Input
Amino acid sequence: MKVEAIEIDGRKVFSVRSFNQGIGSWLERLPSVWVEGEVTELRRQERWATVFFTLKDPESGACLAVQMPRGQFDGLRLGLADGERVHVFGRASFYEQRGDFHLRALTIERFGLGAHLAALERLKEKLADEGLFAAARKRPLPRIPRLIGLVTGNDAAAKRDVLTAITTRFPPAQVLVAETPVQGPRAATAIAAAIRELCEHGADVIVVARGGGSFEDLLPFSDERLVRAVAACPVPIVTAVGHEQDTPLVDLAADVRASTPSVAGRLVVPDLEELRAWLDRAHAGLARGARRICERGAERLEGTHTRLRQAPRLAVERRLSRLEATHGRLRALSPKATLERGYAIVRTADALVREPPPPGTELAVEVAGGSFEAKSR
Output
């Protein structure tokens, strides 16, 4: 748009509107650029269509107003807050009505620490979606490990803390130490290799320990290669990295996360005194159980002996009872019992008389009191 000035008293005079239009038209010709600064005065409201914030140069204090459509800002899912350093890609813009200059943002990226945090958040979401942090994958630690693997730095306080805790709590413990770099570009691959080597040497639990440090110092413990190595480890892993408030991604993939190296040492071994007390209680319980079993066996044996001692007498009594019953039945069925009821047995010379015999036949008659002879009529 061509802006025309008005000739007044030999001067070229621009109206405010025409001046602002000229500035706006000239700014529109500038290319899109990246601008770095700290976010300040961030203002976002649900009822606003635009998000406003200021970019501040941390060295000189120079400021630049920035505007961005709220939907576009929310779509970036950056979760920005005041004080974060960012790179903003946008175009210069000028609001002619009020003469306000600002940067119209097209996209925003974190810079420095913020960029690392954003990358870590994306990696965290990716690995979580794959199930590497799922609680169902966590394995219990062995009660009494045969060999404990320890991955830590050379001459590190973390190594001393872990070893002191283990030997104090359980002196017979066997510990195999793998010393590796714990910060810098080679740390992640070195730690992953040490974990594999300890597994090959027969460790049945591994501690990965490192003392506190800056965010950058702890970055290797959020390296994707190391996180996957921890998740794929065939034996349980305990991590103790940084301070309690630090949470590198290996902590999420490990089976147990300890707040400090000393706590990690106490987690992987039992307390010897507590174990001895438990064994004493178990021994006493077994002794009581054995005594109860012997007492119950003796009671059963005594009962069996009593039954065996009484068995012959009971058998004789039962047989006598059956014999008496048989004798009673036989006595009731005997001919003598019949005779006592008033009956008689009549015989001829060679047989019992069942039909009336011819008259004059000599008969022998037997009754209960004796016998006599008679003749039939």
About this structure: The chain has ten helices and 15 strands.
